[in-house]
Design goal:
- The structure is a single chain.
- The chain is α+β, with helices and mostly antiparallel strands.
- The chain is 34% helix and 12% strand.
- The protein has a 5-stranded antiparallel β-sheet, with no helix packed on it.
- Strand 2 and strand 3 form a beta hairpin.
Length: 303
């Protein structure tokens, strides 16, 4: 009961569980949890002090509730006046961090958010996995955007002449989930190759009128849909047999990278998640079986 409810109960004239009907007896009995006849003077005093503390606590709680109501009332309207509207499903903490915690701007003038990974980085000597897509995690005292890990600064964001953070151009992924870039050696899913990529186009229609990424290859007028290109040469029985003898770490090319920086990620998923298995060893087995089936199908059936 609240303090007021306890006082009203004590004054209702009805006996309590010990038969007391006087308001002061009932109140002191309730505060001590004992029949009034068994309460001594010291317990009376302590009970009254505890009751006063209860009143103070309830008053402070009421004040806090009032302040919260006052803060939240019309909050959306006040936020709109700042010209930094809340995004869909964004919490107040996320909004405050995004809009009011100082951080560098990118080339378009937008604040770089912690967690962004589409950034051009200069890696430091502490970097254990060069070329990984690091996430922005901190800003140093000089305003430089940092990627940190293993309790060290592992990369510093590159900036343009205005000091703005450079973002990487959007990656165009091939059939193997890896970026297709000019100068790379690739194969077509049909099995032909190797081919050399000349230029990748993302904002120009394909020669046959489709709106999808495509690439010139072999510098002879040949072109291909990017989605049909892969860095992986067509499998052979010898290669599958050789890969089957590898350890899980060798098969997926783990090196000393942790799962967060897995080199075998496709669309952000490590092998065990992508293939819905308990671990990457079982994912390796499933991948070998897939490759064998595809090789058999290409050769016209298993021998």
């Amino acid at each position: 009961m609240t303090a007021s409810e306890l006082l009203r109960w004590a004054a209702n004239g009805e006996p309590n569980e010990y038969g007391n009907v006087f308001a002061d007896f009932k109140l002191l009995s309730a505060l001590s949890g004992k029949p009034y006849a068994k309460i001594n003077y010291a317990e009376d005093v302590q009970g009254i002090r505890n009751f006063a503390d209860k009143i103070d606590a309830e008053i402070e709680m009421a004040r806090m509730d009032a302040r919260n109501v006052s803060f939240w009332t019309g909050l959306d309207a006040r936020i709109a006046l700042l010209d930094y509207p809340l995004r869909k499903n964004e919490t107040l903490d996320e909004w405050l961090e995004r809009c009011f915690i100082p951080r560098p701007l990118d080339e378009a003038g937008e604040p770089v958010q912690f967690g962004d990974s589409d950034i051009e980085w200069d890696e430091t000597g502490e970097c254990r996995n060069p070329g990984a897509h690091w996430n922005a995690t901190a800003v140093d005292i000089g305003g430089k955007l940092l990627a940190t890990g293993f309790s060290e600064i592992i990369a510093v964001a590159k900036t343009d002449e205005r000091g703005r953070v450079k973002r990487r151009a959007p990656e165009v992924l091939g059939a193997d989930g890896l970026p297709i870039k000019g100068g790379e050696t690739v194969w077509l899913l049909s099995g032909t190759g190797p081919h050399v990529v000349d230029t990748v186009y993302t904002d120009i229609q394909t020669p046959d009128g489709r709106d999808c990424p495509w690439a010139d290859i072999d510098n002879d007028g040949t072109w291909a849909y990017v989605e049909s290109l892969t860095h992986t040469p067509p499998d052979t029985q010898e290669r599958i047999d050789e890969d089957a003898r590898k350890s899980t770490f060798e098969y997926w090319g783990c090196g000393d990278a942790g799962c967060e920086y897995c080199p075998a990620k496709i669309e952000g998923k490590i092998p065990r998640d992508r293939l819905d298995t308990r671990n990457c060893e079982k994912a390796m087995l499933l991948d070998l079986l897939r490759r064998q089936r595809e090789l058999d199908a290409r050769k016209g059936g298993a021998e």
